[in-house]
């Protein structure tokens, strides 16, 4: 029996890439997983990878780019009696690469919608029940991106995630609900590209560390998965 046995984690964007690895890391601890992709069929590979673990799965689908889309995903999850002990806000998109002078408001708003506004709505939907239960882990995937004006909408969206993480953590202090941001590192995924520094699996030690914090553990923090991995010499 793992340390998260019987708990439920909702991992947005767990159909591939980093979210898929987070789902595996949680399942290794016995955690039941709500797998999400834009379409259910996108989640098939993750479902296969989770088969060896004796955990329950729920599959939800939907685009997080609009408020209605996010609410539709929330409704599907809440049909699971609303049980979400761990909310892993992972899904995100990259910006088009442009000179900073050329970005339009639409470039910013489309990235902010998926990468930031959806997180606000998801946190607001699931945190109250966590607070009532006296237990919850909200982990927002951030980024170490800096000095890349050509990807400014993406960088701005992650800065917003970091600030919201701090604000939400402060609101939930001393409730048993921890809210932290995790920088996965630059990883070889569809988003990170083939030249990234590390393999996608390297996110797992950091990803699980934040989920396993005790109730009096860190909150409102920005933590690096690659630093955690190096500290644990994995
Ligand atoms: N890779 C890196 O080097 C790196 C570095 C720093 C931070 N990050 C962050 O890590 C997280 C995961 O990135 P990744 O590299 O794993 O990305 P990825 O391989 O491109 O996977 C993105 C995931 O998000 C989902 N998704 C994309 N757009 C969506 C939308 N509009 N609505 C709902 N779901 C959507 C995808 O679902 P479908 O399969 O259905 O499309 C997929 O599961 C992101 O927050 C990213 O910003 C990544």
UniProtKB/TrEMBL annotation:
It comes from the Bacteria. Coiled coil: none annotated. Gene3D superfamilies: NAD(P)-binding Rossmann-like Domain. Pfam families: adh_short (PF00106). InterPro entries: NAD(P)-bd_dom_sf (IPR036291), SDR (IPR050259), SDR_fam (IPR002347). Belongs to the short-chain dehydrogenases/reductases (SDR) family. This is SDR family NAD(P)-dependent oxidoreductase. The lineage of its organism: Bacteria, Bacillati, Bacillota, Bacilli, Bacillales.
